[in-house]
Amino acid sequence: MSALRPHVLIVHAHPEPGSFSSSQATVAAKALLGAGCTVDTLDLHDDRWQPVLARAEFPATDGPFKPQAEQMRAAADGTLDPLVREHLDRLLGADLLVLSFPLWWFSVPAILKGWIDRVFVMGAVFGGEHGLFGEAALTGRDAVLLVTTGGPREAFEEGGAFGPMDDFLFHLRRGVLEFVGYRPLDPVVTYGPARMDEPAREAALAAVHEKFTAMAEAVSENVVRSHQSVRTVVPNRS
Hints:
The protein is an alpha/beta fold. Helix content is 39%, strand content 13%. It contains 6 helices and 6 strands, in the order βαβααβαβαββα.
């Protein structure tokens, strides 16, 4: 955060730069920049992110490998993988996290799940000296899911072929974002862009732009509130 100017981290997880998912991530970034935010984008495929939380990235230990225990130890000892440490610092520096992805098998692509596994480090964003939910390290920050689907909107409604979209996103909103302290904002979902003609795609991208412009204002207000809540006025006792 700089002079109360909201800072945004967009983590994007689509392998095709020309996809609608990639286009709407770009539009979201432009909207946020235009509304006065600073924006940092991680394109996981472009960066060739390795999603596997592997034993090899931690110092050798006797006994069974316990990933979260090793994360806590590495966070405390300063021995996290350098790239994980870099991404963690970028995460901790953001007032708004945007997870941008296509809905694959009604969840996030493996590369994004692996980013969460490796970067949401126990002992750095939750657990250890941090608690869970309202006591976690990212309490007071905002987060939003920016999603595309293969199926049409009506398939994700109550009584539709798949069921309500909120049901599919609950594990992400509650089990990931709220778990580490974020305030999840309403998800931004474009349904079935592959089925759209060009005018419909342009209209959908315009809707994304409008939603993120409005979102920037809400995030700015949250940043101001958070800043005011941590200010401490010490009375003059002389």
